[in-house]
Amino acid sequence: MTTITVLRGDGIGPEIMDATLHVLDAMQLGLQYEFAGAGMVALEKHGELLPQATLDSIARNKIALKSPLTTPVGEGFSSINVELRKRFDLYANVRPAKSFPNTKSRFPAGVDLVTVRENTEGAYIGEGQQVSDDGATATLTQKVTRKGSERIVRYAFDLARNTGRKKVTVVHKANILKSTSGLFLKVAREVAAQYPEIQCNELIVDNCCMQLVMKPEQFDVIVTTNLFGDIISDLCAGLVGGLGLAPGANIGEHAAIFEAVHGSAPDIAGKGIANPCALLLAAGQMLDHLGQPEQAARLRSAIVATLEAKDALTPDLGGEGNTLSFAKAIASRL
Ligand code: ATP
Ligand code: MG
């Protein structure tokens, strides 16, 4: 019996979580849910955006399934998501991008890639941000470490090995950023040498973006530093149908959090029409992580079959279904 922490979230969060749990229940996996509060709901109930009880629950169960959370401006920390990443040292941000049928996307077939983004260092974390007194000069420290690079590249190669993927592309800018990107690339080459059965190639980030837009089928696993990964993973989500279908995982040694990439979508909250697929696909990633790849595949197949049949699709996919009818249609195809 596995217990997971469930954060129902804000905005459309509770609606897509209910739909997702409906499908997981139908799978009869013996999962136990421990509901915990975070975001606006927790702020109103407990006076805290990220209560200690929630952190304890995640630490205990090591696995959380999380709906989008709203961070109000000026509430102590910049983002609850970033805070969770820091607290649990969730160093790997893993974002699959796969073509799905009947979605409004440029590549309705052929794309099946995973972006593995370093989540804890580099320019993205904004270390040493300063603007001079006269406002004329802005600076930022960018730090990349051997340890940080090694564990993320190793994560990417292990993922390839464990999921039968064949190629890892190391994305960098070492020709210009010789120190930081240079160290990342150097360490990546060392790690790659320990996985002789996995093909490793290197690509400069600008070229990578062009290749992704023109020939995304050539990619399998992409591993890169924090800021490049931030941009590339959204680019990849856009290739295959956008936010409603983009799941993500934040993984560390002691905990892993699975989530939809999109936000709380206040514009459609409470209407029951949000697309639950991103969170469902995140639940699929969670099942992979829990060592149940056949169940993850079962879930994904049911989602694909429902998209193929255009059965009860939500309005964002051009359908006339709603969050729950879509989830029920998926559950019926498990
Ligand atoms: P937040 O501030 O929490 O990020 P947001 O409004 O920026 O909220 P996003 O998720 O970034 O929310 O949404 C951008 C747009 O995409 C919105 O118009 C939203 O309605 C739509 N959208 C996001 N997620 C979904 C979904 N699961 N189903 C349908 N539409 C969605
Ligand atoms: Mg947003």
Shape: globular
End-to-end distance: 21 Å
- String of helices and strands: EHEHHEHEEEEHEHEHEHEEHHH
The spatial strand order of the largest sheet comes to 2-1-3-12-11-4-5-10-8-9
Number of helices: 11
Number of DSSP strand runs: 12
Helix content: 25-40%
Largest sheet at a glance?
10 strands, mixed
Overall pLDDT level: 95
Give the bound compounds.
Answer: adenosine-5'-triphosphate, magnesium ion
> CATH H level of the largest domain: which superfamily?
Isopropylmalate Dehydrogenase
Low-pLDDT runs of 5+ residues are none
CATH topology of the largest domain: Isopropylmalate Dehydrogenase
The secondary structure category is alpha/beta
Radius of gyration: 20 Å
| CATH C-level class of the largest domain | Alpha Beta
Strand content: 15-25%
Q: Any idea what the CATH architecture of the largest domain is? A: 3-Layer(aba) Sandwich
Domain count: the total is 2
InterPro entries: IsoCit/isopropylmalate_DH_CS, IsoPropMal-DH-like_dom
GO molecular function, one term: magnesium ion binding
EC number: 1.1.1.41
Domain Isopropylmalate dehydrogenase-like: 3-330
Verbal overview:
The protein has 334 residues and is of the alpha/beta class. It folds into two domains: 1-95 and 242-334, 3-Layer(aba) Sandwich (Isopropylmalate Dehydrogenase); 112-239, Isopropylmalate Dehydrogenase, CATH 3.40.718.10. 40% of the residues lie in helices and 18% in strands. Strand 1, helix 1 (13-27) and strand 2 (31-36) form a beta-alpha-beta unit. Helix 7 runs parallel beside helix 8 (226-239). The longest helix is centred in the middle third of the chain and has 17 residues, at 146-162. It is globular, with a radius of gyration of 20 Å. Adenosine-5'-triphosphate (ATP) binds next to loops.
